[in-house]
Amino acid sequence: MSKASVGFIGLGLMGAPIARRLAREGFAVTGCDIFPATLEAFDEPDTQRTLDPIEAARGKDIVGICVRTDEQLRDLTADGEIFKAQGEGGIFIITSTVSPELAQDLQREAGEYGVSVIDVGVSGGSHYALEGRLSLFVGGDEATIARATPWLEAIGTVSHLGPVGRGLVGKLLNNLACIANYGLAASILDLGVELDFDREQLREALQRGSAQSFALQVVPGMMGVRENSTAEGVLDLRNLLEKDVKLSAKLAPADNVAMTALQDACAVLMARMDRAASELKAK
């Protein structure tokens, strides 16, 4: 399947590098985005482009989706036309971070057209996508995943976590851990400032000790202290993270002790990012 035809819909921050990587690995890629400027920026050689998701899916062996929200994915698939266009035997791969229940709903709907669905939670930045080093949390049946393996292994390392929906559960747990850690990292730096430490000096010191973490590495940018930080950028990231926090909250009962602790840490980050955005606006 190394020369399979691929439609890839959603060419944003993660979608574009994934589509580029697939093209560089020999797949026949048609990229699609509803925004003309975003589509035009997808200038990978030997690929096709279209503004029409149905055309991007038509007759393709595999269709990859990387939209932002449940609502966008539901709108894209609402009438079943995209599955009909792809046709029997196709594989529909969800790389968006959406609710596991939506992935399961789409599996049932796509099955009416002979299309199989797998959900693939992706972890890693755009450079990891271009290098084929993403971590992939995958849900789906063994036979479909076997057929999709060349596509999956072109972009990263596969962890098959169970049937459709389980990949997204794994990705939401991954994101919940990350966001909670960001909240803790922001809190420890704020506490240090209150104790008369220089924020950056303290952060560098902590990174040399047992407190070192990826969260401490990236949280200054999330707090808007980098040169090119803007209030809009901080709020956009905050809202994206909050989407995943809300989705993850549905994975356990409201009184679950572990979930409560994690959600509390995430709430600290949301409030801190709101404050950071307000401070940037006031400058």
Strand and helix layout:
Layout: E1 5-9, H1 15-24, E2 28-32, H2 36-41, E3 48-50, H3 53-57, E4 62-65, H4 70-77, H5 81-86, E5 91-94, H6 100-111, E6 116-123, H7 126-131, E7 134-139, H8 142-155, E8 156-162, H9 166-194, H10 199-207, H11 214-222, H12 231-249, H13 257-282
Parallel strand pairs: 1-2, 1-4, 2-3, 4-5, 5-6, 7-8
Antiparallel strand pairs: 6-7
Task: Name some characteristics of this structure.
56% helix, Rossmann fold, eight-stranded mixed beta sheet, single chain
Account of the protein in words:
The relative contact order is 0.10. Helix 9 (166-194) crosses helix 12 (231-249) and helix 9 (166-194) packs across helix 13. An 8-stranded mixed sheet has the order 3-2-1-4-5-6-7-8, sandwiched between helices. The longest helix is centred in the middle third of the chain and has 29 residues, at 166-194. The chain folds into 2 domains: 5-163, Rossmann fold, CATH 3.40.50; 170-282. The protein is an alpha/beta fold. The protein has helices at residues 15-24, 36-41, 53-57, 70-77, 81-86, 100-111, 126-131, 142-155, 166-194, 199-207, 214-222, 231-249, 257-282; strands at 5-9, 28-32, 48-50, 62-65, 91-94, 116-123, 134-139, 156-162. It has 13 helices and 8 strands. It is globular, with a radius of gyration of 20 Å.
